[in-house]
Write a structure and sequence with these properties.
alpha/beta, TIM Barrel, 9 strands
Length: about 250
């Protein structure tokens, strides 16, 4: 038991050291964009990581965790259900048959990428007596491998807004903003134009559908979170910079 505790304590210390560096980099990026560091939330990505890693993260001070796979996450969420300060965010693609699992266990969805899924989430959230906060995922690069509502061509934004307006009328969902995944580049600077286009889309939707809160922008990963913060991120999804590689 003592040996196990020493391993756990060592892991907590490693995560805390990584967080000290990460929070400083986040603060500097926020300052460069003229915003307060408190306006950017850190979503710690724990997909494919064991329960012990999440527990170490909680001990290190983390309280928002992002997961990609509903059923794997549900096991961790159930195991930690007594920790009421922890939030669980679904950041991965959602299959129709997993909508109930997502609604039952998660506190927020970042990856609402189809009208069909919006309807499934709305139905299941209603059955559970809850309103699910959601971010609408958009594809701004035009890559076919990316999920999200196709939004790379601004000339389509008017018809896209009509779909989003329909989602906004679903009584058990609450739109909170947008999410996107840019292409992976060797240079994080190359993601900047994608994030600037997202800001333009956000401004368009704020004017087009003013009864919805579009304030949240979930952008940025371990690869490019500083660029994302400079371009307006309110949430960054970071895993490797906190926990190391999943193969470690």
């Amino acid at each position: 038991m003592t040996e196990q505790m020493n391993v756990f304590d060592k892991r907590v210390s490693e995560i805390q050291r990584n967080l000290d560096v990460l929070y400083e980099r986040m603060a500097q990026a926020a300052e460069r964009s003229g915003r307060a560091k408190e306006n950017v939330k850190l979503v710690a990505v724990t997909k494919m990581m064991p329960l012990e890693t999440v527990q170490a993260g909680i001990e290190a001070g983390l309280n928002i965790f992002g997961e990609n796979y509903a059923e794997q996450a549900a096991e961790k969420i159930i195991a930690l259900k007594n920790d009421e300060l922890v939030e669980w965010h679904m950041i991965g693609h959602i299959q129709s048959r997993k909508a109930e699992t997502v609604c039952r266990h998660f506190d927020m969805v970042h990856s609402l990428d189809r009208l069909k899924i919006a309807r499934h989430l709305n139905k299941n959230a209603g059955m559970l007596g809850k309103v699910m906060p959601v971010l609408i995922e958009v594809n701004l690069s035009g890559e076919q491998s990316k999920y999200g509502f196709e939004a790379s061509d601004p000339s389509t934004w008017e018809s896209l807004a009509a779909v989003f307006e329909e989602i906004s009328r679903l009584e058990n969902l609450a739109i909170r903003g947008l999410m996107t995944m840019p292409p992976f580049f060797d240079d994080p600077e190359r993601t900047r134009p994608i994030y600037r286009k997202l800001k333009r889309l956000q401004a368009y939707l704020m004017e087009r559908i003013p009864n919805v809160s579009w304030q949240e922008l979930s952008i940025g990963t371990s690869f490019d979170f500083e660029v994302a913060i400079e371009e307006g991120a309110t949430m960054v999804r970071v895993g490797t910079e906190i926990f190391g590689s999943r193969s470690a």
